[in-house]
Write a structure and sequence with these properties.
Elements (H helix, E strand, L loop, with lengths): L14 E3 L3 E2 L7 E2 L1 E4 L7 H8 L4 E3 L2 E5 L8 E6 L7 H9 L4 E6 L4 H14 L10 H8 L6 E8 L2 E11 L2 E9 L10 H15 L4 E7 L16 E4 L2 E4 L4
Parallel strand pairs: 11-12
Antiparallel strand pairs: 1-4, 2-3, 4-6, 5-6, 7-12, 7-13, 8-9, 9-10, 10-11, 13-14
Length: 245
């Protein structure tokens, strides 16, 4: 079964466009977002099909950029069986050998929220997710669906990171990772380590891909995604190898 085209038709789904708004990634640009009708539950079959077309999930919403005159946002994924960690990534994996990992459903947890709020205040005070709130967290990262999961990272029982992800028919989809911004944890590179753990989880579950969301060449915050090689990009309706810049 090929993973380059949707396996389930999207039937008579309705989609909407947002009004143009300031782009969160490229200064001075306007963005428009295409999203699935909010009345349509993001069930597994529809989600599987739309993910192959570059759609992402935020809470109950499935969306993708649809900006006139701009195609900077590129959907990327890691072909799991072809991926081999580089020397820096192998060293990082050894450095985090002392962490314990725990899978959880994507439900609200006060301990998770406290870590999330600290992360947003410390690392993203200049972004559109500041200030954090309980409602913002719930609508973004909690979902009562069996495919929505959270992966906890603990150091001697202390919660230091959480990675939200979804399990699709054709891979895992990394939704968002937040972590303890304490200076003594910086060398652990917890964001990168979370991706490496999701690659390994995909491999163990015999899933061919890990979806990393959007990559923008001009966006410094997204540059880390190019460290995972090989990487595939969505062009039209086909996934093709992304040549490193």
């Amino acid at each position: 079964m090929s993973s380059n085209t949707p396996q389930q038709p999207t039937r008579d789904l309705r989609f909407f466009l947002t009004v143009p708004h300031a782009c969160s990634y490229l200064e001075g640009r306007e963005a428009t977002t295409l999203f699935l009708d909010p009345q349509e539950s993001p069930g597994q079959g529809v989600y599987d099909a739309l993910a192959l077309l570059g759609f992402r999930r935020s809470g109950r919403h499935l969306y993708r950029p649809h900006c006139e005159g701009c195609s900077a946002c590129i959907s990327v994924r890691i072909p799991v069986e072809e991926f081999s960690p580089n020397r820096t990534q192998r060293r990082l994996m050894r450095r985090n050998d002392d962490l314990s990992l725990h899978l959880r459903p994507a439900i609200y947890d006060p301990e998770h929220y406290a870590l999330y709020a600290d992360y947003i205040r410390t690392r993203h005070a200049d972004g559109d997710m500041f200030p954090p709130s309980h409602e913002q967290y719930r609508t973004f990262l909690t979902l009562d669906q069996p495919y929505a999961r959270l992966l906890e990272f603990r150091l001697a029982g202390r919660l230091i990171a959480v990675a939200a992800f979804d399990q699709l028919e054709h891979g895992l989809s990394a939704i968002y990772t937040f972590f303890d911004p304490a200076p003594d944890l910086e060398r652990r590179s917890l964001g990168t380590y979370a991706v490496l753990c999701l690659v390994e989880l995909s491999r163990r579950r015999e899933l061919p891909h890990l979806y990393l969301g959007y990559w923008i060449r001009e966006c410094r915050k997204m540059a880390y995604k190019q460290a995972f090689q090989p990487l595939e990009r969505l062009e039209g309706r086909r996934w093709q190898r992304l040549i490193p810049s």
